[in-house]
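Input (structure):
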């Protein structure tokens, strides 16, 4: 049995995404912890190595701020591109940090948010396939539907990581860590 802990500010951690069946989905090699409490972890990375479950590797193209919440079934990646901030939101289990990395289960559904505030729910077909194949319970299905609604409300209300000040403040803090 492991003891869950809280990473320290400035610590570099891995992010490990799993699928419902326990198989690894994707690993981000290095993210700098900008803030960590019992409920949230905010981190930053730039040009970090990502390894897919099939062993394929790639490097992120831009700086990003990541937001994880202990009770919400989603996490948010705020990506800084030339034409503005894009958000990629993963519907997922709440995170767990065990000293080895930030870990969560990816439940296929994603929401992409564009700099103009428009957003799209993605991968509904993949969700339906995996729901059947991996036998997602009715409870998980309901929790994910509720969290899609919460996430859409946050986007529309510019709440949490979707607030303009959020990305400005945490991006500036990340740049200080990178110097």
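Output (sequence):
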């Amino acid at each position: 049995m492991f003891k869950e802990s809280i990473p320290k500010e400035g610590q570099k951690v891995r992010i490990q995404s799993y699928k419902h069946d326990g198989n690894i989905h994707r690993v981000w090699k290095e993210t700098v912890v900008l803030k960590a409490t019992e409920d949230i972890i905010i981190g930053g990375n730039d040009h970090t190595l990502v390894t897919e479950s099939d062993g394929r590797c790639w490097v992120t193209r831009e700086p990003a701020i990541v937001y994880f919440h202990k009770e919400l079934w989603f996490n948010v990646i705020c990506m800084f591109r030339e034409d503005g901030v894009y958000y990629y939101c993963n519907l997922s289990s709440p995170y767990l940090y065990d000293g080895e990395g930030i870990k969560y289960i990816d439940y296929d559904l994603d929401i992409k948010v564009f700099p103009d505030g428009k957003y799209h729910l993605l991968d509904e077909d993949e969700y339906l396939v995996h729901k059947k194949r991996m036998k997602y319970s009715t409870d998980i299905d309901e929790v994910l539907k509720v969290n899609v609604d919460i996430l859409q409300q946050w986007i529309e209300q510019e709440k949490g990581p979707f607030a303009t000040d959020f990305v400005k403040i945490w991006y500036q803090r990340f740049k200080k860590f990178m110097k």
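Notes: The chain has a mean pLDDT of 96. The longest strand covers residues 24-36.
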